[in-house]
Design goal:
The protein is built from 8 helices and 5 strands. By secondary structure, the chain is an alpha/beta fold. It has one domain: HUPs (Rossmann fold, 3-Layer(aba) Sandwich). The protein has a 5-stranded parallel β-sheet with strand order 3-2-1-4-5. Strand 2, helix 4 and strand 3 form a beta-alpha-beta unit. Helix 6 runs parallel beside helix 7. The longest helix has 21 residues.
Length: 191
């Protein structure tokens, strides 16, 4: 596996000016451990595109937590049927497997489409802060979509440099709701 934290620093050190970054955000707690690493280097727009989250009340609760960070998100709306169609046939796949990979690619693809349509210089995601997500898959998907859409991908492994720990501490300090499952009905804890 590549050292995506090192690649991240190389990209940051090579920046000219303050380019426009579209940052896909999965939730406010994770974002709280990422934003400080980016804010001095980019003009950031936060994209909340997470049709995987179930139910709608959970989607809304997670979105509301961004207020505690003092940031506004661009919300592409809740279309859970789109997610279900995307993972059809993979409902029983193990957590972190093919279903999750389809979900991550769907969300990153939509981020690249939005970035291309609105003139962003870079796309990235907060998903790599989680120790439960496949950082290699996320970054390789970003690389593939960069080539497909012609928008730069900001490689990262945001859990490095105590990113996940900081996200936990920051969210606790801000009194944020921290979810107990990834988001979709297939990741809900078994009762």
């Amino acid at each position: 596996m590549q050292n995506y934290n090192s690649i991240f620093h190389q990209q940051i050190n090579g920046l000219k000016g303050k380019p426009k970054l579209l940052l896909h955000v999965c939730c406010a707690p994770c974002s709280s451990g990422v934003i400080n690493r980016l804010v001095d280097h980019f003009d950031i727009t936060y994209l909340y595109y997470n049709p995987n989250i179930y139910p709608l009340s959970e989607f809304e609760l997670r979105k509301q937590q961004f207020d505690k960070l003092g940031i506004k998100v661009v919300d592409l709306g809740y279309n859970h049927d789109e997610y279900l169609k995307n993972v059809s046939g993979l409902e029983q796949a193990k957590e972190g497997g093919a279903r999750c990979q389809n979900c991550i690619e769907m969300r990153l693809r939509q981020s690249f489409i939005y970035a291309k349509q609105h003139g962003y210089d870079y796309v990235s995601t907060t998903l790599t802060i989680s120790p439960h997500k496949d950082c290699e898959f996320i970054n390789q998907t970003g690389k593939k979509l960069q080539e497909e859409y012609g928008v730069n991908y900001l490689f990262a492994d945001f859990k490095k440099e105590n990113g996940f720990l900081l996200s936990t501490l920051n969210s606790k300090k801000a009194g944020m709701y921290r979810q107990t499952y990834c988001g979709c009905e297939f990741s809900l804890p078994k009762q």
